[in-house]
Amino acid sequence: MPQNFPEMWVNRVELNLTTATEAPWLAGIQELDTAILEVGSGSASEQNIIHIPNTDFEVDVLINNEAYPIALQAYTDADVTIQLDKYQTKVVTLSDDQVTGASYRRIDAATALMTRSILIKKYGKAIWALAPAANGAFTPVVQTSGKRSEQENPIVENGRTILVYADIVAMKDKFDKMEVPMAGRRLVLCSDHWNDLLLDRKRFGDMLVNYKTGDPAPVIAGFEIYQYINNPLFDGTNKLAYGAVAADGQFQGSVAFYVSQIAIKTGFTKQYFAPSNLDPENQTNRLAYRHYFICVPKRVKYIGAIASTYSPGNPA
Known about the structure:
This protein is an alpha+beta fold. Helices cover 24% and strands 27% of the residues. The longest helix has 27 residues, at 104-130.
């Protein structure tokens, strides 16, 4: 009977959440090695919380010092508390007729769709969180500068100014001025910007067309280049709220970050299951999942974005 197999169901979900195809721009980023504190377990206010140390401490270095004793410099740091995002599926109903014998096919059909929905939400929220809210000294937002040309670029519409190589170099310049180490810089292009580069066949066409999941990411202007279809929306240099719907002049942006400044932590996955013997009228099993995950910058710095400029009057 299906009520004998809920453990198999939750194990399959956990496996899918950790081995399903990941957003490649997160590949290789180590999860934080810190304990998860579960607060309010089983209640509506249940939370997964982690604590991470953080510091901007810089050691003063003396050159040709002749004064003793050497001055003391006290080390300083802070403890940052991060609450993991909570992702919950709606309750999925499975009749006994559907799952008699708890066949793997039925388990996969139910859990794979629920897993897919969680992955879409958690990675969409992650890339949104990695983008700066607005242009700042340590959170640069560069605007595209390419000439809008309907003939050269038929994808361009609604007055969007295209991404060109100079815009990526401008982001490199911003990261250089912030003294971000060269190794570990990543740029996640939105579909618009990826396609803009594809149309520059002489410089980028072959490089991006030949890029496949599992292969090393192409490197342009010092950034490892990735693509994601669910990047955050920008209105000029200002990021819109998570889940916002684009209006005229608002476009997805591309997101730049430094790998070592990104915090990732996967929390608990919980199964909620009510067997059909508790529902004799409908003889239906009910299944839902709760999953905790967070991906955020450790500090509001060393992140950036490239946002499309809106120029509806720019002649084609």
